[in-house]
């Protein structure tokens, strides 16, 4: 916490493969630090991040490479740099530290070991000393709206609403696989499908389900808290659902997401593995099991609330 106004520069991006999680967390941190002079720095060739931040009143700058970014930080006499983009090398972190303190998120690059602080709710970085690392779901940074909404009171015996949340881009098209699985079991309740800014559109007319399609959602917790059961990929959405006590079936979008340590039953999650390797039939069977097993859904919800009760 800075007592006086400082310049804080955020370096992040969004793309089809990278997803939207980094820019959403950057937004959450920026909103908390809004009394300072904030600058969001994005890559010139990553238009998805630019489209995202165009809807918010922050100063945005574009750079072509790390050398240009480091020069920007030096020229502007930046006090703090927050890196949220994965796998920073040691050179860029060292260059930035010539003039600023450096905090990095979810970083497994060599630069994480020399950063002033690493914050990660998804996995522990064994190369970083404990005094320079905050790891675990208790250190997750979520949007301010998640802090103001009451945590889910109870799980109902019947599953009347099911929520599909596969990130801002859904590169493995897991939402369609989930809809096919729900068709297979003849799910009669409401299926709320949230599609992100970079996700391919879905032709919902092909399904006989009661689908509630949503996009560009401004109050995600209000959508999540109504769900009796959620299907999600393995990013920060898992932590958001856990904070609300929503039992969740998880499929990873890619191999990297399989390394995320928060997709466990202790956090309210039934993890099925890599989404591309889960058949529609397997997914349908697992959904059916949780729909019918009220006690298991209740236990997952209680686990999730317990795991996130000590978030700082």
List keywords for this structure.
312 residues, 7-stranded parallel β-sheet, single chain, alpha/beta, 6-stranded parallel β-sheet
Describe the structure.
The structure is a single chain. By secondary structure, the protein is of the alpha/beta class. Helix content is 30%, strand content 21%. It is built from 10 helices and 13 strands. The protein has helices at residues 21-32, 47-53, 66-75, 90-97, 144-148, 174-185, 220-224, 237-243, 280-292, 294-307, and strands at residues 7-12, 37-43, 59-63, 80-84, 101-105, 117-120, 133-135, 161-165, 190-195, 210-215, 229-232, 248-252, 269-274. The chain has a 7-stranded parallel beta sheet with strand order 3-2-1-4-5-6-7, sandwiched between helices. A 6-stranded parallel beta sheet has the order 10-9-8-11-12-13, sandwiched between helices. α2 (47-53) links the parallel β2 and β3 (59-63). α6 (174-185) crosses α9. The protein starts with 6 loop residues before the first strand and ends in a 5-residue tail after the last helix.
Helix content: 25-40%
What portion of residues belong to β-strands?
15-25%
Broad structural category: alpha/beta
Number of strands: 13
Number of helices: 10
Sheet with the most strands? Answer: 7 strands, parallel
Mean pLDDT: 92
Categorize the overall geometry: globular
Please state the CA-atom Rg, rounded to the nearest Å.
Answer: 20 Å
Low-confidence stretches: none
Distance between the first and last residues' Cα: 14 Å
SSE pattern: EHEHEHEHEEEHEHEEHEHEEHH
Strand order of the largest sheet: 3-2-1-4-5-6-7
């Amino acid at each position: 916490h800075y007592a006086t106004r400082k310049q804080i520069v955020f370096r992040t991006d969004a793309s089809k493969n990278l997803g939207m999680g980094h820019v959403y967390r950057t937004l959450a941190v920026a909103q908390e630090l809004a009394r300072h002079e904030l600058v969001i720095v994005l890559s010139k060739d990553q238009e998805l991040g630019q489209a995202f931040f165009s809807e918010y009143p922050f100063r945005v700058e574009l750079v072509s490479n790390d050398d240009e970014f480091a020069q920007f930080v030096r020229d502007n006499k930046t006090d703090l740099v927050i890196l949220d983009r994965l796998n920073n090398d040691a050179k860029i972190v060292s260059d930035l530290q010539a003039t600023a303190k450096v905090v990095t998120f979810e970083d497994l690059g060599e630069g994480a070991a020399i950063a002033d602080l690493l914050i990660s709710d998804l996995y522990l970085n064994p190369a970083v000393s404990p005094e320079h690392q905050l790891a675990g779901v208790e250190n997750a940074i979520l949007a301010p709206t998640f802090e103001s909404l009451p945590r889910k009171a109870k799980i109902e015996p019947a599953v009347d609403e099911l929520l599909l949340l596969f990130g801002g881009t859904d590169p493995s098209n897991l939402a369609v696989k989930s809809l096919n699985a729900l068709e297979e079991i003849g799910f009669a309740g409401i299926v709320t499908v949230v599609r992100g800014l970079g996700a391919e559109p879905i032709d919902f007319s092909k399904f006989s389900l009661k689908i509630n399609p949503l996009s560009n959602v401004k109050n995600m917790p209000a959508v999540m808290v109504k769900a009796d059961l959620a299907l999600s990929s393995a990013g920060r959405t898992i932590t958001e659902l856990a904070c609300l006590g929503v039992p969740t079936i998880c499929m990873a979008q890619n191999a990297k997401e399989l390394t995320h340590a928060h997709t466990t039953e202790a956090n309210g999650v039934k993890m099925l593995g890599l989404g591309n390797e889960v058949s529609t039939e397997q997914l349908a069977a697992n959904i059916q099991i949780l729909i019918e097993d009220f006690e298991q859904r209740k236990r997952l919800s209680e686990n999730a609330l317990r795991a996130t009760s000590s978030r700082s």
